[in-house]
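Duplicate of #3305? Posting structure anyway:
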């Protein structure tokens, strides 16, 4: 909870957000002051965060804090399943508060500024603990402002065609687990690129010799890099992994290994998903359950190679880091198999792909698969890619005593 004040101080959030944090009549400020918390790092109030914050509020429109003329507002144009937010940024506000400024020179004379800044949004989820779960996205903007011209570019990351990158970790319990390595470890990279890009090679869209992994507390101190698709997923290890996943296909991931998923490497909406194995020693239960403030991370360095509409090859290099902790890892095949035969009798599961802005848009905005425990496997797919369209909701229903 203490990071919210630092976030407000260091970034140009909405003014209303700062007023909410400072309101002594609300639970958040009252508990911080009453408990004397947040005076040191990692010293939040002891309350559960879902009791301190009103999760029904949002702070996406209105004037920006410490800025004289800049503001945002929600676009009133009707949309399906999402809302656009319009930003109005005054030049002097960006120059004084938001941007890194580099003088543009003509000989010895300054003719303007090069401005580099970003705009973004954070989604804060409260929990039944003293922690928060936060996801965010941002867009970087580069602008040249001179007395004679204005030139602006925009990228979702530091790269030219990558819009979003996500890494997920998973482990699959072996059917006859070895006492030293009871689970097989995997990582899945999900990329969103421009939907005009293509690839003819599912394997070399992320070349095997351009994907390597290290583990450590920092990227510089990470272990000797391992090339999973060139060193780990070969020979007898490859054969054993494939057989183990096939044997447990009722619960283990069935993605192609070291190959892009789907009928084509770049799926509808510019989606790329690439799964590869990790070393057995990447983590263990003690590492996942340790209550440490300093945790090791998995550092993945890889290259992405795609084709644009003219057939020109676009290549970029990406680096990611993922903290190794229990909430970062999806565990599979850990329950007794006999439960699978009766799971449909005690609960039902509905899956929805996308978001709906209102009840009237529910049927038209969502791809739905109802009661999947009683249906054959099926594919949910949307032909557009956005934050809203890529949200998957899993609804588990059953008798109250089932969840006790």
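Output from current build:
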């Amino acid at each position: 909870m203490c990071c919210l004040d630092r976030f407000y101080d260091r970034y140009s959030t909405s003014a209303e957000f700062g007023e909410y944090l400072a309101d002594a009549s609300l639970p958040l400020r009252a508990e911080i002051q009453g408990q004397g918390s947040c005076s040191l790092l990692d010293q939040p109030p002891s309350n559960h965060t879902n009791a301190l914050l009103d999760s029904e509020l949002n702070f996406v429109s209105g004037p920006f804090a410490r800025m004289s003329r800049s503001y945002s507002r929600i676009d009133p144009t009707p949309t399906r399943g999402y809302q656009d937010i319009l930003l109005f940024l005054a030049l002097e506000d960006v120059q004084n508060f938001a941007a890194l400024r580099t003088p543009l020179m003509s000989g010895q004379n300054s003719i303007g500024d090069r401005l580099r800044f970003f705009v973004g949004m954070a989604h804060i989820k409260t929990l039944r603990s003293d922690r928060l779960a936060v996801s965010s996205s941002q867009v970087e903007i580069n602008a040249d402002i001179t007395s004679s011209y204005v030139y602006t570019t925009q990228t979702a990351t530091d790269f030219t065609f990558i819009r979003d990158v996500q890494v997920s970790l998973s482990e699959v319990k072996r059917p006859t687990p070895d006492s030293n390595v009871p689970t097989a470890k995997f990582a899945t990279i999900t990329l969103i690129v421009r939907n005009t890009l293509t690839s003819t090679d599912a394997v070399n869209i992320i070349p095997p010799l351009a994907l390597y992994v290290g583990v450590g507390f920092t990227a510089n101190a990470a272990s000797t890099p391992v090339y999973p698709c060139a060193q780990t997923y070969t020979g007898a290890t490859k054969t054993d992994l494939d057989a183990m996943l096939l044997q447990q296909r009722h619960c283990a991931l069935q993605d192609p290994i070291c190959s892009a998923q789907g009928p084509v490497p770049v799926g509808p909406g510019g989606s790329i998903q690439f799964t590869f194995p990790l070393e057995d020693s990447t983590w263990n239960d003690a590492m996942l359950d340790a209550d440490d403030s300093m945790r090791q991370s998995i550092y993945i360095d890889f290259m992405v190679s795609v084709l644009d509409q003219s057939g020109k090859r676009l290549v970029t290099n990406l680096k990611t880091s993922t903290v190794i902790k229990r909430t970062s890892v999806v565990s599979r095949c850990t329950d007794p198999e006999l439960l699978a035969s009766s799971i449909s009798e005690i609960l039902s599961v509905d899956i929805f792909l996308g978001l709906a802005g209102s009840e009237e848009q529910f049927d038209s905005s969502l791809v739905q698969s109802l009661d999947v425990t009683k249906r054959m496997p099926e594919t949910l797919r949307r032909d557009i890619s956005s934050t809203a369209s890529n949200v998957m909701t899993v609804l588990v229903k059953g008798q109250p005593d089932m969840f006790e």
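Confirmed duplicate; merging threads. The chain has three domains: 3-155, 162-332, 342-403. Residues 342-403 form one domain.
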